[in-house]
Amino acid sequence: MRTVARTFAVTATLSLAVAATITSATAGELPLVTGGTHLSVDASVFDPSASGPIDMKALTYNARGTTSGGADGSWDYQETEPGSSVHASGDVTCLVVHGNHAWVGAEVTRADDPSYVGLDAWWQVQDNGSGAGSAPDMTTFVGFGDPGRAQDYCNRAPTSRFPFDVQSGQVTVH
Fold first, then answer.
1. Structural domain of residue 146, as residue ranges?
2. Global pTM?
3. Which end of the chain has the lower number of beta carbons within 10 A, N or C?
């Protein structure tokens, strides 16, 4: 299983509450965040004593705001690092959108390691456009923690400590 420093690379405190805080860039428009991203970094980014590749093989998500102020959708995540891997997926429980930046929280309902089931998950993304001249989209790795942490993460919408350029894939924030 991952080290605490790695697992909480996306620093936050989150919750499983189904109610979500949603801020849309356009009044009356419900937010929608979709994407599929991939990236690889060296483990020393998170822990100077570590080495080897951490490969976000896939982070896919479809998160939608609801008319009741909540969020729904689904997500799937696959990551490998020296000596371990995780494949987890589940239901989106919260979503915050500020302009082209989104914070997503979720519940783990399925995982190859049963100890992840029931945990919260969270990440953030930034849509920087597409086409020539656009900056790469941004993503964070997924953080995992106790129930209650995802909602807090969405409520706080913190600045990412570890933002990474998307190496392949696309982020769309509406």
1. 4-173
2. 0.83
3. N
